[in-house]
Amino acid sequence: MLSFPNKNTNGELKVKSKTENLSEIRDFVSSNATKAGISSAIIDNIILAVDEACTNIIKHAYKLSPNGEIIIKIDYDADKFTISIIDYGKSFDPNLVPRPDLQKYYREHRVGGLGMYLMKSLMDDVKYTSIPGKYNLVLLSKNIRSG
Amino acid sequence: MADFSTSVKEKGDISIINLKGYLDAHTAPTLENNFTQLIGENKFKIIVNFEDLAYISSAGLGVFMAYIENIRDNQGDIKLTNMSNKVFNIFDLLGFPLLYEIYKNEDEAIRKFSGS
After folding, report:
1. What is the pLDDT of residues B92-113, one digit of tens each?
2. Chain A positions in Cβ-Cβ contact with residue B90 (cut-off 8 Å)
3. How far is it, in rounded angstroms, from Cα A90 to Cα B36?
4. Taking a C-beta distance cutoff of 8 angstroms, is the pair A110, B69 a contact?
5. Is the domain defined by B4-108 classed in CATH 1.20.58.2190?
6. Which residues of chain A make contact with B96, given a CB cutoff of 8 A?
7. Going by DSSP bridges, is the β-strand pair B4-11/B77-81 parallel, antiparallel, or unpaired?
8. pTM to 2 decimals?
9. Residue A85 — very low, low, confident or very high, per pLDDT cuts 50/70/90?
10. With contact defined as beta carbons under 8 Å apart, do A115 and A85 qualify?
11. How far apart are CA A57 and CA B100, in angstroms?
12. Got the DSSP string for B87-106?
């Protein structure tokens, strides 16, 4: 059996704010989650949540400008897998993003807010910290068991 | 770079878009182009086959939201088929099965178009 050290910090991934980097981000998350011994169904959920967080950063924090920086760090122990995502773009208040009403979206041709809802549904904890003018931090965590 | 491609085939007056690979914010424009082109050709009966789709994010789901109303206003529809459990679960989480008809395979979707 694999033994779990108390804490693993698995380096970090630094990428520019381009959608073409989403696949590299997903691969980074996937290989770390696999190392952590997480089941593939849960890994799929974590990958999607991180993709959504980074897509939001690219679209909203950096407004599709490709030169912004996104830093992704992963930590895990036997109980918890945590992804920290840092950007230096425009800060935003996640409380202003309502839970999407799909019927209303349908009528209004709106598609935003789905990503945020997915992140909250797929992860056990989603936390936003914004220091305006400095950085934004999204913390995504998933409870895991080592069995 | 995410690997994603589409192919479009015609069966009578129905257009079938096959999705392959990873549909995310980077690759969604490829699918948008398919819809734009079909709508430009007045082809409003559209089936999207998900059999070879490995991954979808909300940017991909948004493509379906963006075109459905225009298509239905023209007596057409987007019907979805051959979804893996993994992809269906994401659609389900967002309540999409209330807005879109999802069928096991292309034949079922074609029959639904023929019957209406």
Report:
1. 998 899 999 999 999 999 999 9
2. 48, 118
3. 32
4. no
5. no
6. 102
7. unpaired
8. 0.91
9. very high
10. no
11. 29
12. HHHHHHHTTGGGTSEEESSH
